[in-house]
UniProtKB/TrEMBL annotation:
Annotated GO biological process: mismatch repair
Domain of life: Bacteria
GO annotation, cellular component aspect: mismatch repair complex
GO molecular function: ATP binding; ATP hydrolysis activity; ATP-dependent DNA damage sensor activity; mismatched DNA binding
Residue span(s) of domain DNA mismatch repair protein S5: 218-336
Protein name: DNA mismatch repair protein MutL
Classification of source organism: Bacteria, Pseudomonadati, Pseudomonadota, Gammaproteobacteria, Oceanospirillales
Coiled coil spans: none
Protein family membership: Belongs to the DNA mismatch repair MutL/HexB family.
Function field: This protein is involved in the repair of mismatches in DNA. It is required for dam-dependent methyl-directed DNA mismatch repair. May act as a 'molecular matchmaker', a protein that promotes the formation of a stable complex between two or more DNA-binding proteins in an ATP-dependent manner without itself being part of a final effector complex.
Keyword DNA damage found: yes
Residues of the full protein shown: 5 to 352 of 632
Amino acid sequence: SINEQPRNIAVLSPRLANQIAAGEVVERPASVVKELIENSLDAGATRIEIEIEQGGVKLIRVRDNGRGIPQDDLALALARHATSKVYSLDELEALGSLGFRGEALASVASVSRLTLTSKPANQSEAWQVQSHGRDMATELAPAAHTDGTTVEVRDLFFNTPARRKFLRTEKTEFNHLEEVVKRQALSRFDVAFSLRHNNRTIHSLRAAHTQAEQQRRIAQLLKPEFMTNALVVETERAGLRMTGWVGLPTFSRSMPDMQYFFVNGRVVKDKVIGHAVKQAYRDVLYHGRHPCFVLFLELDSSGVDVNVHPTKHEVRFRDQRLVHDFLFSQLHRALADVRPENDVGSSF
Ligand code: ADP
Ligand code: MG
């Protein structure tokens, strides 16, 4: 109250600072999986294995065959604001990696029992650090591991009961987590992924290089019927390039749950995009039905800001109108053959 003496100002302990940051980055097991997969992709992995127990609350283990972390850097990888991806402002502006804040591992480590094991190819042995939600109390120990990295996250939120309370059922948490894996697997056909839950294989996806292999991956991740009711899109105009698959009206959903749109490789949920797609389908889908699509938009990185927020899938286009008109006109044209003849082009 107003009559009380002012309290002294104190700098947060590293652990508390990390736990506060974790509140933003680590909402649920799915967010941990997203961060760990992004780290594996940033490390150039071509194979990522994800092992889950009890919806991710008991165990999340992500193993990759990427570059690895040198022994001397292992403890630092768990420290806040420690990253190998950005050393300068120039690098930040030309960023090509998915991560750069150096926050994910520190945040996850502060609210779980985390073990990080790694072996770069040029190092003869693997090493391991553990952190049990303490302040960087990490001890380096030798370990067994092939080239690459494994991050094991046990007992998520064990030391933050208030957060733990917000977790939903095992099934719901796993569904969120599987959705994250699907998005990543759709954005990187060149990487092999596997996902196991409670010792059961949910997805096992080999690297998909040809269009036929890519379509097989999509059929596995979405539904086989999507692939047999989809058109291939490949179009380019004014520095914008769109590729992918759009569902025919013969395969629609009562929920917008099979809509994947990637901008420069990152999954995006965006009003401008959503509106353009909806307009393009307007006269071919019944009211209340939603189209399915897996679409990739590529444009010069100066035309889009994808790092608006670390966890939300937002983008900011420099020229929204240009992007909207491109998406609408190209999708509208792709769907021309399934539109009643006299309607072709009439909504331009
Ligand atoms: P950021 O990804 O923003 O750099 P993180 O906390 O996610 O921050 O990771 C910290 C650092 O740990 C990374 O910059 C990277 O050097 C290293 N690292 C994390 N995961 C991996 C991995 N799977 N393979 C190789 N290096 C990794
Ligand atoms: Mg990261």
